[in-house]
Amino acid sequence: xxxxGIGPDQLQAFLNGLCxxxxxxxxxxxxxxxxxxADELAKRGKNNYATMKWVLSSIHLSYSILGKTTxxxxxxxxxxWWTTAP
Length: 86
Prior knowledge:
By secondary structure, the chain is mostly helical. The chain is 56% helix and 0% strand.
């Protein structure tokens, strides 16, 4: 089903353009840039989740305690919990 109403040549040109929009190099890459960025963000989310689980296990808190704590505290008081992907 073609909900957008574009032809195959237009679709091919659009996807080809996405393959040239990578920020690091200006030659074609094997994946369109939005798919590449989604993969990178998923890796970052996985790393952040693993770090959160490690922090919680190292200080012996449960997820339910963290949920109750974060629901009632201000963002400024949570700065010590914030992490970034390695």
